[in-house]
C-alpha cells in the first residue's frame, strides 16, 4: 500500500515544477473527479484545467471555487453531454484549438440506474456510453495532443481488477434481455483494460491507468437506489437510509482522499510509459518516484519492459494478473473490441446526423445523468 503521507508528499512537489500543466477532466462536477480536480488546483503550480460537464451553473460554481484554491491557475468549464460521441468530438476540437498539448486526461463520468436499460439518442446504452465509449473517444481524440506532452497520462477511474467474462458476440449488450447495471460496468472494465493495452502498442510514450478507487463517499449509489422503478422503489429505500449512510460514514474513503490518490496516479513516475523516457526525450512522470516505492507492475512485461498500462487498486498498488485477461490476449480479443468500438462510433455519428437532418425533437433527459454538486465540498481542504 502506498501511504497517504507518501502521496501527499509526492503531490506537494508539483508546486516546484514550472507552471502550466494542462489537464482535461471529464466527470469532475462531483465525487472522485471533483476531488481530483480540487487537489490538482491546490497542488500544481499555475495549472490549467478544462472541466467538461453538463451543467453550466455547476461549472461556474466549481470554477469560482478553484480560483480561490489557486489564483494563479486557469480553469475553463466546457458544457457538454458526454454520453454522446458527437459531443465528445466537438469538445475535443474545441480543446485542441486552444492548446498545443495536453498532459493529463482524467475520466470519471458515470451513471447508474435501477430503471433498466436506457439508450442515448445515438443508440448506445447510457452506462456503457459514459463508462466506456465516450471515454475511449476522448482518449483517441486527444492522443495526438497528449503525445506532445513531456509526461502524458490517461486515467480512467472505473473497476480495474473486476474485469469479467464478456459475450463477445454482444459487446454492447443489445441482445441481452436481462439487463444488469453491474454486469454492464464489469464488461466496461474488461474492455477498458483491453483497449488501453491496444492503444499502448501504438502510443508507447503515453501511460495508461485503469483504476479502481474502492468505496468512496459519493452520491452515486444513493442516486442509483433512488432511481428504482415502480414498486421496487420502496424496498430500495431501506438500504438507502440504513446501510448506505453507515457505509459512507465508516467504510468509505472521502472524495478528498480519493482525489489525492488519483492525482498521485496522474503525476508520479511510479507509472512510466512503455518507451524509455530518456531516449524518447520525455519524463517518466511529473514527480519522481517516492523513495521505497518500486516502479509499478504493468499489465504486460516482456524482456523486462512494461507496456505502460496499469490496473491500479484503491491503495495505489497494481492488481495481479488474471487468467481471464491472459486468455483474452491469447485470443486477440483486444482487436475484436477495438473493431467493435469503431463500428459503434460510426453508427452513433450516423444517428446524430440523421437526427439533425430530420430535426427530430430530442426527448433524452440530460438531467438523469447529472449528480448533485455539494458546493461545500469545494470549500473543504
Describe it for me?
- It contains 13 helices and nine strands.
- It is α/β, with parallel strands linked by helices and 381 residues long.
- The chain has a seven-stranded parallel sheet, sandwiched between helices. Strands 7-8 form a two-stranded antiparallel ribbon.
- Helix 6 packs across helix 12 and helix 7 packs antiparallel against helix 8.
- The radius of gyration is 20 Å and the shape is globular.
- The C terminus is likely disordered.
Overview in brief:
With 381 residues, this protein is of the alpha/beta class. It has helices at residues 4-12, 31-43, 56-69, 85-98, 126-146, 181-202, 220-226, 233-241, 243-250, 255-267, 323-330, 333-358, 375-379, and strands at 22-26, 48-53, 74-79, 104-107, 153-157, 207-211, 301-302, 305-306, 309-312. The model is unreliable at 360-381 (pLDDT under 50).
| Form type | globular
Q: Main beta sheet, described?
A: 7 strands, parallel
Helix content: 40-55%
- Amino-to-carboxy terminus distance: 23 Å
As an assembly, this protein is single chain
Strand/helix succession? HEHEHEHEHEHEHHHHEEEHHH
Beta percentage is 5-15%
Task: Give the helix/strand class.
Answer: alpha/beta
- Sequence stretches where pLDDT stays below 50 over 5 or more residues: 360-381
Mean pLDDT, all residues: 89
Number of strands: 9
Main sheet: strand order:
3-2-1-4-5-6-9
Helical stretch count? 13
Question: What's the gyration radius in Å?
Answer: 20 Å
